[in-house]
From TrEMBL:
Membrane topology, record value: Multi-pass membrane protein
Keywords: ATP-binding, Membrane, Mitochondrion, Mitochondrion inner membrane, Nucleotide-binding, Transit peptide, Transmembrane, Transmembrane helix
The protein's name in its UniProt record: ATP-binding cassette, sub-family B (MDR/TAP), member 10
Matches recorded under InterPro entries: AAA+_ATPase (IPR003593), ABC1_TM_dom (IPR011527), ABC1_TM_sf (IPR036640), ABC_transporter-like_ATP-bd (IPR003439), P-loop_NTPase (IPR027417), Type_1_exporter (IPR039421)
Upper lineage: Eukaryota, Metazoa, Chordata, Craniata, Vertebrata
GO cellular component: mitochondrial inner membrane
GO molecular function: ABC-type oligopeptide transporter activity; ATP binding; ATP hydrolysis activity
Signal peptide feature range: none
Organism name: Xiphophorus couchianus
Length: 693
């Protein structure tokens, strides 16, 4: 099984090589084009293009060493999976509480005026659609609020004393026809309002999502170490829609609730001032009670949601990393952990159910009592000829509307505050300036790019672990056009060295130069485009192999199928890809798992896999060698077979370069670290061979 995994990694690497090769080819095209332009402007003929400038290649060949690590035991498996639970050992209740506290801190309790302007700015492009929506809202609200009055008139027409049946029928028919027309207009206006508000809401959310995604991708890599992916995705998907909803649908519902509450109360006073005064004496205490109760209910239901989110996060992480869970045989303990979390959700949900039951019971009861009191007092007024039956009916309907509007106002306010809270998180992200620019800085002329790399007195620690230095005063020189192998024990900082070179992070002190130019002065986008990387953890996106190969190109749309085939050939991956039924159109799943599945299906037994493994290793090695020609190369590797072609080897240890020199020279030093590393590897390889036999 381990051998198969290792071979899959080989194949992934082949695809990455194809991507990398294409990247290099693209550069040549671009560099040649820009060179041609310069020559043209200098009055020179374009046919005499210069040879391509050397392109740096960084090759991380840990796939070669996966066999090595597999023998060290399960705990050192290369799978870079760390579950969140290991970071902070807290009980579900504690963590849910801290999450709830953090969340409640985020939801403001008063309207933050600064944010109002930003929200209005967001809505600005949609102002005409929103204005039309508000216009239709006014029409539909006017119709809704006039309905009880006219319906009262209908009732009075029915009960009118002294009118003969014919007259009554005529006035009833004309009144009902007129009202049908008015209601039709109201319905149409309401539909138009809902459509316009939703359409502009979706447009605002779409714009916001695109801006937030672009702001996220612009951030430096250190930012992603500090911010969890789930949190960022949540901002992108949920916070954007909360903001969009709060300024469109919610705003329109809120405006409607305000208009209806004001109109309703006014109409109640218009219809019967004495009954209105009586009812409005009862409403405030009930409303206060309902608000307090509602707040408590919201807080408990938020805690339930938070606890549920924690359980879901655990499930998502474990399902997403099912291979690791399975490999460690942790299914049952993961089920236990999930059950604990869901038990906590259940206990909160039960509490919520009790409170909710009480809340709905009390509000339902108070609503009914209010209606009953209106009927009682109204009945007395009707009996004493101070009110007609139609007026009492209108009044009753207005009471309903006012009640509904008050409930709508309270939810409008809480949704609005949620919108401000979500907005604040988004502004924070949108306003954040990346620590270093993405596409600004010097671009070196291709003619002068030789590719000499130098690390001078480099000290570095990761932004999230400032107390754990990775390098201290590290010095390393890689002459242009040479191959440097970087070796060292696991965790000695080999990958970190590459990250610094790619300018994923900046050193805390010291400089890294290319041909004497500090990489901090260079355009990072340009820099990365001149460094081909074959990474330790090959990443494939869930699309076709063809699209995966084209991913490395500057303009993937301009890449022809011939380019893709030739890149695959250079990476020795062509035959392997063509062996799939759909060839280059084979869709690889998330992290390339579908490819693994097909491949596994093709493998019959371990021995055959071993043979293929060696063959693939040879092919990958061969492809690498052809790619390395004429370039400055840093190889991160342990295997002697990979290192033997290197011009020099740098051994990392104790936060610095402990040894540096030609491989043969270093091997001669019996006490040297390199020699010890190689001996250990040879020993492990022998063990591996024996285990296979
Ligand atoms: N993004 C990060 N944030 C914090 N610490 C990190 C980060 N990446 C790596 N480290 C830590 O930095 C140290 C050096 O890691 P690095 O991956 O560079 O070592 P390596 O020599 O390439 O290891 P290996 O041979 O196992 O791949 C390790 O202790 C690692 O845990």
């Amino acid at each position: 099984m381990r051998l198969l995994i290792r071979m899959n990694r080989m194949h992934f690497n082949k695809l990455k090589l194809a991507q990398s090769r294409l990247l290099c080819l693209e550069h040549r095209a671009i560099l040649s084009a820009s060179h041609r332009r310069r020559r043209q402007s200098a009055g020179l003929k374009t046919s005499a293009c210069p040879p391509p400038s050397p392109v740096l290649s960084v090759l991380s060949c840990s796939a070669f060493t996966s066999g090595l690590s597999s023998l060290r035991g399960r705990t050192v498996a290369h799978t870079p999976v760390a579950f969140a639970s290991s970071s902070a050992a807290s009980t579900p209740a504690e963590s849910a509480k801290s999450q709830t506290d953090a969340e409640s801190q985020r939801i403001p309790t008063t309207v933050p005026l600064d944010d109002v302007k930003r929200i209005l700015d967001l809505a600005h492009p949609e102002r005409w659609r929103l204005a039309a929506g508000v216009g239709f809202l006014t029409v539909s609200s006017a119709v809704t609020m006039s309905a009880p009055f006219f319906l009262g008139r209908v009732i009075d027409t029915i009960y009118a004393s002294g009118a003969d049946t014919e007259t009554m029928t005529a006035s009833l028919t004309s009144l009902c026809l007129m009202l049908t027309g008015v209601f039709l207009c109201g319905g149409a206006a309401n539909a138009a309002r809902v459509y316009l508000m939703q359409a502009s809401g979706q447009q605002i959310v779409r714009n916001l999502r695109a801006t937030v995604f672009s702001a996220v991708l612009r951030q430096e890599v250190g930012f992603f170490d500090k911010n969890r992916t789930g949190e960022l995705i949540n901002r992108l998907s949920s916070d954007t829609s909360v903001v969009g909803h709060s300024i469109t649908d919610n705003l329109s519902d809120g405006l409607r609730a305000v208009a209806q509450a004001v109109a309703g109360v006014s109409m109640m006073f218009y219809v019967s001032p004495s009954l209105a005064s009586f009812v409005l004496m009862i409403v405030p205490p009930i409303a206060v009670l309902a608000i307090i109760y509602g707040r408590y209910l919201r807080s408990i239901s938020k805690r339930t949601q938070d606890a549920l989110a924690q359980a879901t996060q655990l499930a998502e992480e474990r399902i997403g990393n099912i291979r690791t869970v399975r490999a460690f045989g942790k299914e049952l303990s993961e089920v236990d952990k999930y059950t604990q979390k869901t038990d906590y959700v259940l206990s909160l949900a039960r509490k919520e159910a009790v409170i909710r039951a009480g809340f709905f019971g009390v509000t339902g009861l108070s609503g009914n009592l209010m209606i009953l009191s209106v009927l009682y007092k109204g009945g007395l007024l009707t009996a004493s000829q101070h009110m007609t039956v139609g007026e009492l009916s209108s009044f009753l309907m207005y009471t309903f509307w006012v009640g509904i509007s008050i409930a709508g106002l309270s939810s409008f306010y809480s949704e609005l505050m949620k919108g401000f809270g979500a907005g604040a998180r988004l502004w924070e992200l949108l306003d954040r300036k990346p620590e270093f620019p993405l596409n600004e800085g010097r671009i070196l002329s291709p003619d002068h790019l030789k590719g000499q790399l130098e690390f001078s007195n480099v000290s570095f620690s990761y932004p999230t672990r400032k107390d754990a230095p990775i390098f201290q005063n590290l010095n390393l020189l890689v002459p242009a056009g040479t191959i440097m192998a970087v070796v060292g024990p696991s965790g000695s900082g080999k990958s970190s060295l590459v990250s610094l070179l790619l300018r994923l992070y900046d050193p805390d002190a010291g400089t890294i130069t290319i041909d004497g130019h500090d990489i901090r002065d260079l355009n990072p986008y340009w820099l990365r485009n001149h460094i081909g990387t074959v990474s330790q953890e090959p990443v494939l996106f869930s699309c076709s192999i063809r699209e995966n190969i084209a991913y490395g190109a500057i303009d993937p749309d301009a890449v022809t199928i011939q380019d893709i085939h030739s890149a695959a050939r250079v990476a020795n991956a062509y035959d392997f890809i063509q062996s799939f039924p759909k060839g280059f159109d084979t869709v690889v799943g998330e992290k390339g798992v579908l490819l693994s599945g097909e491949e596994l299906g093709q493998q019959q037994d371990g021995l055959r896999a071993t043979a293929l493994d060696a063959e693939n290793e040879f092919l990958v090695q061969e492809a690498l060698e052809s790619l390395m020609e004429g370039r400055t190369v840093m190889i991160i590797a342990h295997r002697l077979s990979t290192i033997k072609n290197a011009d020099s080897v740098a051994v990392l240890d104790q936060q610095r370069v402990a040894e540096c020199g030609q491989p043969t020279e270093l091997l001669e030093n019996r006490q040297g670290l390199f020699r010890k590393l190689m001996e250990k590897q040879a020993f492990l390889q022998e063990e591996q061979q024996r285990a296979l036999l």
